[in-house]
Design goal:
Layout lengths: L1 E3 L2 E3 L7 H26 L7 H18 L10 H24 L13 H28 L6
Antiparallel strand pairs: 1-2
Helix pairs in contact: 1-2, 1-3, 3-4
């Protein structure tokens, strides 16, 4: 095992903290670019070129894909997936409400009152919750380990 900077390099390639950090940063930047796209949709007069933002999104997606650990799931448990589903929905709807309160109007029709948007969100939360309950029940029946 050889250590170079924060990376441990061994016969199997080891895990590299730098690769994981780049993945986290690219995912965070992707959230920022997504937010900027929605802001530009609500306030097109701010003068930010959408092409630059879309290039940023594509770059972040590529970085996240390249630096993702192979074979490692995005969510370690269904509980994490449920929490992500809940908070990402809260973030999106809060963003839409705040932009509407600031006087913005979506150019493509995305509004926080859109029933299709709410329906998709509720389906995602229900599916995540069902998987979480099923996994929790299975763990309780087997009596093995802890649940994260």
């Amino acid at each position: 095992m050889i250590k170079i900077g924060n990376c441990m390099i061994g016969l199997n390639g080891g895990r590299c903290r730098m690769k994981k950090r780049v993945n986290q940063v690219s995912q965070t930047l992707l959230t920022g670019f997504f937010t900027l796209i929605v802001v530009i949709d609500f306030f097109p007069e701010i003068g930010i070129n959408i092409s630059i933002v879309i290039m940023g999104v594509v770059t972040c997606i590529a970085l996240a894909f390249i630096t993702r650990q192979k074979g490692e799931p995005i969510f370690k448990s269904s509980k994490q997936k449920l929490i992500f589903s809940l908070f990402s929905g809260i973030y999106i709807f809060s963003l839409l409400i705040i932009l509407s309160l600031l006087g913005g109007v979506s150019q493509v029709g995305i509004e926080w009152t859109n029933p299709i948007l709410w329906g998709l969100y509720l389906i995602e939360v229900l599916v995540s919750y069902t998987k979480y309950k099923r996994e929790l029940k299975q763990i309780c029946e087997n009596g093995s380990g802890t649940f994260q």
